[in-house]
Backbone:
């Protein structure tokens, strides 16, 4: 009997040691491991990726406006709205996943012109943003990738190079 | 250490012309004299071209002249009046000027080209008398004497330098390819003070960084596409050149077919890499005595093979994986022999009928305002179309029918050198409205001293200037005894022209890759709005010694103000414009001034506004109104949320559509999308 109890207690101690060891190896608790492998997700993960504007207020558009959302809540807008070269706007955004509202602030501190109700259709690979301030102002985006030219800088000879003769 | 022979040679191939007569043709006037289009001075003996009236078509068809695909065999027309004349002068051949085959019959007939015939007869006959008799025949619409294209060499060998090929590339060389001579190609990438370019005379302006076609960033998007073909109408191109061979166009049906047979039934035999229209042969030649290498040099600028460890870079030469655009050699000069202008017309037709997208033509008539051409060359479109009728029609045919069915352009783009006569008017055909006329600039972004300019110029590109050490345009050459190198420098609008052809070819390559398709006019508009402003550089003056005659010459750059078209070409801008329709975001209810420079290129200052239009539906749906054009801007107001496309048309190149005594300006139309939102971010961001 006593032998059986001792054996049972030994097993119990082993189990407890095993459990503590397992908990002790939890990365988040380890002071020796870095946080590099931890993914911080601050927005609805369905938004993550690049989206290309294809429609505005029910009208199809063939323009170069791309929005890239990072899971951490960073965004970048690549837009060709001032001539042939892209302009890039970066910032941070957040989602209210109860009301499905997206809001954001640019890196220069400017807030977005409005918050947006968002809908993600993962099957159609579509993102729909509806202005909160102006209901019915709806933009539709298709899943895409950031164009190469959006990441290049333009260069042209400027008048500053002119030297008086 | 290798040496690269540098020779500054200005070459422009110019048609030897009979005197041009600027006649205003009255439609009602059908007198014999007005049927004879040009003068017989300097013409080809024993040859006359006639254009029959439409009414003669059925009788010509009956005589089956039109079915004569190889242009041999027929000696009479079936038109009795004409045949009687031929009997008198021992006529021995009647050849259609343009080739008609099963493949092209419909479009050749639609263009009326099937009504042109060349009549060959005894050379002892008085050609003026023959012309008068033919003009007397009711079925004859016009009579023209035949001219020969000839070469004018201006060997302005200012100096001859042997360039030491450095074993080390310059640290600042930004070219992404391993072609060893690319560091000398300032026309593709000008490093300014680090370029190794120096003026040979005092007070010459320094080379300017960025004075090039801006192809280096463009190459990150596209380097070429083998489905795009550029027709090099010139001396024969050395298709076996070590730095060109991979990118030669190949007619595979002829290559794999039977020698001496028109395997693909396009009207030509053994036309594997193009065709020699001088000797009517499928064999292209390029290194006879009196050949200059001009055609090979021009081809190299467009599509020398990139990244193959040898030679130079071509603007659309690919990445080294056999992916450059293709050159098609259409030979109109061979040694000391030259094609007639009927052969030239046929060469232009060949380009259209065999899938060329771009016509690259570094040749033309003298400028009407040059010392050589004054009073004896076409100075406006009407004169050109009248006195060079079948050439003009051949150009029109190419623009309407060039390209391929599944390609990025419906039709073709015709690009011509403006001329090297320092004249204030470009030469024809360059100045002909449907063509793109290219002037030249130097490494200092000033107009090259030799370049024609003025009304009719569309765009400027690097042409080289031998007044600078290392200032010429380096490209490929055949191994001519007079030069002895496979690469050398030349200068001229002949070199500027293929710069634009290369940029256009690169643009079409990118369009192909993106699945885009344009009309010829749309693509031309894109090309001519992909420019930068050259006006800020038009200051000051230089003096130099003309080696041809030892005289000192003076160039005042202020004389060129407003006379260099839309500005200097930019390859990267073109590719960006091809990517997508530009867009402007405006606020509902507010008037927004839109700067058109962004959409028309920096050369808009010299352009004339024509119109800004919105479709009626969009005008209603988005409540769009467009205000007046002022100082390069238009005002746009949208009363509702929505989208509208605004189409803006400008005229480039100076002149006026109502003044037919000068070259016409070129119409450029660009579209951009306006999106009207209720609220905008204060920093311009989309959200």
Residues:
């Amino acid at each position: 009997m006593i032998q059986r109890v001792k054996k049972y207690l030994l097993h119990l101690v082993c189990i407890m040691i095993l459990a503590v060891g397992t908990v002790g190896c939890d990365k988040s608790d380890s002071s020796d491991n870095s946080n590099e492998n931890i993914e911080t997700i601050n927005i609805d993960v369905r938004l993550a990726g690049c989206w290309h504007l294809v429609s505005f207020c029910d009208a199809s558009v063939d323009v170069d406006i791309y929005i890239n959302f990072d899971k951490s809540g960073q965004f970048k807008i690549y837009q060709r709205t001032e001539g042939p070269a892209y302009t890039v706007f970066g910032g941070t955004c957040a989602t209210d996943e109860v009301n499905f509202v997206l809001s954001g602030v640019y890196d220069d501190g400017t807030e977005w012109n409005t918050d947006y109700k968002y809908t993600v259709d993962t099957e159609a690979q579509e993102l729909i943003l509806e202005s909160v301030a102006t209901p019915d102002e709806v933009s539709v985006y298709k899943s895409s990738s950031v164009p190469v030219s959006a990441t290049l800088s333009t260069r042209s000879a400027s008048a500053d190079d002119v030297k008086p003769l | 250490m290798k040496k690269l022979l540098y020779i500054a040679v200005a070459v422009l191939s110019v048609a030897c012309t009979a005197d041009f007569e600027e006649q205003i043709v009255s439609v009602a006037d059908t007198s014999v004299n007005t049927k004879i289009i040009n003068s017989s001075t300097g013409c080809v003996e024993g040859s006359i071209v006639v254009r029959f009236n439409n009414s003669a078509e059925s009788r010509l068809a009956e005589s089956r002249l039109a079915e004569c695909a190889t242009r041999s065999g027929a000696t009479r027309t079936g038109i009795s009046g004409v045949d009687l004349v031929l009997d008198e002068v021992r006529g021995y051949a009647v050849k259609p000027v343009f080739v008609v085959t099963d493949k092209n019959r419909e479009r050749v007939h639609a263009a009326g080209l099937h009504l042109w015939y060349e009549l060959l007869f005894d050379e002892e006959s008085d050609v003026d008398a023959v012309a008068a008799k033919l003009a007397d025949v009711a079925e004859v619409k016009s009579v023209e004497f035949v001219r020969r294209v000839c070469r004018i060499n201006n060997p302005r060998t200012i100096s001859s330098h042997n360039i030491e090929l450095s074993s080390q590339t310059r640290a600042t060389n930004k070219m992404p390819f391993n072609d060893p001579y690319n560091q000398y190609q300032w026309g593709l990438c000008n490093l300014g003070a680090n370029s190794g370019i120096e003026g040979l005379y005092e007070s010459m302006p320094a080379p300017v960084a960025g004075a090039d076609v801006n192809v280096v960033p463009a190459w990150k998007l596209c380097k070429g596409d083998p489905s795009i073909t550029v027709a090099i109408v010139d001396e024969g191109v050395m298709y076996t050149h070590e730095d060109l061979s991979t990118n030669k166009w190949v007619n595979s049906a002829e290559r794999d077919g039977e020698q001496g047979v028109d395997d693909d039934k396009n009207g030509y035999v053994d036309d594997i890499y193009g065709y020699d229209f001088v000797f009517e042969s499928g064999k292209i030649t390029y290194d006879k005595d009196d050949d200059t290498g001009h055609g090979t040099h021009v081809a190299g600028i467009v599509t020398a093979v990139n990244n193959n460890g040898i030679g130079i870079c071509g603007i659309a030469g690919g990445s080294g994986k056999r992916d450059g655009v293709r050159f098609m050699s259409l030979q109109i000069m061979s040694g000391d022999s030259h094609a007639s202008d009927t052969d030239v017309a046929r060469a232009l037709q060949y380009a259209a009928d065999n899938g060329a997208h771009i016509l690259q033509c570094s040749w033309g008539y003298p400028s009407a305002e040059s010392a050589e051409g004054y009073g004896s060359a076409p100075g406006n479109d009407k004169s050109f179309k009248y006195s060079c009728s079948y050439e003009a029609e051949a150009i029109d045919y190419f623009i309407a029918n060039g390209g391929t069915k599944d390609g990025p352009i419906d039709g073709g783009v015709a690009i011509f050198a403006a001329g090297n006569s320092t004249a204030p008017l470009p030469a024809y055909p360059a100045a002909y409205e449907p063509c793109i006329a290219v002037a030249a600039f130097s490494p200092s972004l000033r107009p090259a001293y030799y370049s024609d300019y003025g009304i009719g110029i569309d765009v400027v590109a690097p042409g080289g200037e031998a007044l600078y050490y290392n200032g010429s345009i380096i490209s490929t050459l055949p191994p001519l005894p007079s030069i002895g190198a496979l690469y050398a420098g030349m200068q001229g609008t002949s070199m500027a022209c293929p710069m634009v052809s290369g940029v256009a070819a690169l643009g079409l390559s990118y369009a192909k890759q993106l699945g885009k398709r344009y009309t010829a006019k749309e693509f031309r508009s894109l090309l001519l709005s992909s420019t930068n402003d050259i006006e800020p550089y038009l200051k000051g003056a230089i003096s130099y010694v003309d080696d041809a005659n030892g005289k000192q010459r003076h160039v005042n750059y202020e004389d060129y103000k407003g006379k260099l078209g839309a500005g200097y070409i930019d390859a990267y801008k073109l590719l960006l414009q091809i990517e997508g329709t530009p867009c402007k975001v405006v606020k509902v209810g507010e008037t927004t001034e839109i700067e058109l420079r962004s959409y028309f290129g920096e050369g808009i200052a010299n352009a004339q506004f024509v119109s800004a239009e919105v479709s009626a539906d969009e005008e209603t749906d988005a409540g769009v109104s467009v205000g007046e054009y002022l100082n390069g801007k238009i005002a746009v107001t949208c009363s509702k949320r929505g989208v509208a496309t605004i189409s803006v048309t400008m005229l480039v190149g100076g002149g006026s559509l109502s003044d037919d005594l000068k070259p016409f300006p070129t119409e450029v139309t660009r579209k951009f999308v306006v999106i009207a939102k209720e609220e905008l971010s204060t920093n311009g961001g989309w959200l």
